[in-house]
Design brief:
The protein is mainly α. It has a domain of about 80 residues. The chain has nine helices and no strands. α7 packs parallel to α9. The N and C termini lie far apart (about 65 Å).
């Protein structure tokens, strides 16, 4: 049985039976995909950056000042978050967009946005814009 399987190629080629190296046709096409067919790295990166930001927004919506005290011990950040609830909504929106810059406590900004009653769809859209 092993001899018949070897003849049909079910086990594989023998050591002496070398087959010519042929390049599969689909491999050459896979290497040269047009730019439009490749996944856009910017969209993937931006969406992964804001994957859990909604949790900070939701915590601010639920617990307000209490979660701000948990997120930061800085008196300055706590004062900022308390004032954010009284600010014009466009100022809070701008803060969400620039929250990804270095030196800005992102979780505090997102919680303050939730505490200021920013709508979830607005928050997610602005967070995506800031991450891009």
């Amino acid at each position: 049985m092993a001899d018949s399987a070897r003849r049909t190629g079910a086990i594989g080629p023998d050591v002496g039976d070398e087959e010519p190296d042929e390049k599969p046709e689909d491999q050459s096409e896979r290497c040269h995909q047009p730019r439009a067919e490749r996944p856009q790295r910017g969209v993937v990166t931006a969406s992964s950056h804001h994957q859990f930001d909604w949790l900070a927004w939701w915590a601010g919506r639920q617990w307000g000042a209490g979660i701000i005290r948990i997120f930061t011990a800085s008196e300055r950040a706590q004062r900022y978050a308390a004032r954010a609830t009284e600010w014009n909504p466009w100022v809070v929106r701008l803060a969400v967009v620039i929250a990804v810059l270095p030196g800005i406590p992102t979780a505090v900004v997102y919680a303050a946005a939730g505490w200021a009653r920013m709508r979830p769809a607005t928050f997610l859209l602005l967070d995506l814009v800031g991450a891009a």
